[in-house]
Design goal:
Layout lengths: L1 E4 L7 E16 L10 E2 L8 E3 L6 H12 L7 E4 L3 H9 L5 E4 L10 E7 L4 E9 L5 H9 L4 E4 L7 E2 H9 L1
Parallel strand pairs: 3-7, 4-5
Antiparallel strand pairs: 1-8, 2-6, 2-7, 2-8, 2-9, 9-10
Length: 172
């Protein structure tokens, strides 16, 4: 069992949504646009981007870039980091800006500015994931604690099986 964000499609894996959250713009404190209450994708279009490698998760990578892409911007990634802490500190050192899930910014250094993104409906989801054939009591009991929802096999956003039906399958 794992907690994952916007997972790629993986055969044999079932995910349940836990939380949906917006993306935030993260800029160095001395960035010319560090003061606005909100920013838009076009306002970040010319900035170098600090981001994680696409190989770390193509679906999550694409969803994070959506606020820029849907505004007609072509992201220019100049530096990559393997986790949000590293990325936020690279931004704080002035290497570029980033688009991050709101919860990823909770531990951001004080040397960055965080602003909500306007003019986008792009969001990110956090899921609990487990193998389809994992029938351990731990998995069953944890899933029973989740609010009613629907299973999303293979990390897809389409809902194809009810949580109850899945649990019955897992328990059998």
């Amino acid at each position: 069992m794992a907690i994952v964000r916007d997972p790629d499609n993986e055969p044999g894996i079932v995910v349940f949504p836990l939380v949906t959250e917006p993306f935030m713009a993260v800029l160095p404190v001395d960035h010319p646009q560090a003061d606005p209450a909100v920013l838009t994708g076009p306002e970040l279009a010319d900035d170098p981007l600090v981001f994680f490698p696409r190989a770390a998760g193509a679906h999550a990578h694409d969803k994070n870039l959506r606020p820029l892409v849907e505004a007609g911007c072509r992201p220019r990634i100049v530096q990559e980091g393997n986790n949000w802490t590293t990325i936020l500190y690279l931004v704080s050192e002035g290497l570029g800006v980033t688009i991050a899930p709101r919860s990823a910014t909770f531990t951001a250094p004080q040397s960055v500015r965080i602003a909500p993104l306007a003019e986008t409906d792009a969001t990110t989801k956090v899921y609990v994931a487990h193998r389809v054939d994992d029938d351990r009591a731990l998995v069953h009991n944890f899933l029973a604690l989740l609010p009613n929802g629907e299973a999303q096999p293979n990390g897809r956003d389409d809902r194809t099986a009810s949580r109850t039906a899945h649990l019955a399958t897992v328990v059998e």
